[in-house]
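pasting for the record
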Amino acid sequence: MLIILKVKYLNYKVYSEILAISKGSDCMRKEDEHICFCPLEGIIDVISKKWALLIVNAIGNNGRLRFNSLMEELSGISPKTLSDTLKELQAEGLIKRESFAEIPPRVEYSLTQDGAELRKSIIPLLKWAATRTNVNKKRCSSTYRGISAHQVKKI
């Protein structure tokens, strides 16, 4: 019963904070140092997709990559999924698409400053997830084991 009361209290507290934030406050109030989730809107939708962080890491591991090189790095991704995810990452300002006026046309992808910072900020989360002991998990998922981009090169 005590746990249920605590959960209800926490739910009420979270709801109250969300309500207070939505009523005219500006995401970070100086008087009590609250930070809201608003800045995550949009970006979380993009990076939570299966291939997004792998694409960011593949580009980060190599510096610059062309479309076919990304296809090779991320074995198993379809061209449409790669193309759509690249467009979303570009729209979010995480990667830069550079076209060269050559014949045949050449396009290279690289990380923006925000993309590089995202890649660096994910490392603590990866370390935390790797050290969790209370969860029944394998070291590397068979889904990602064959993909070289599933490992972060030293930054």
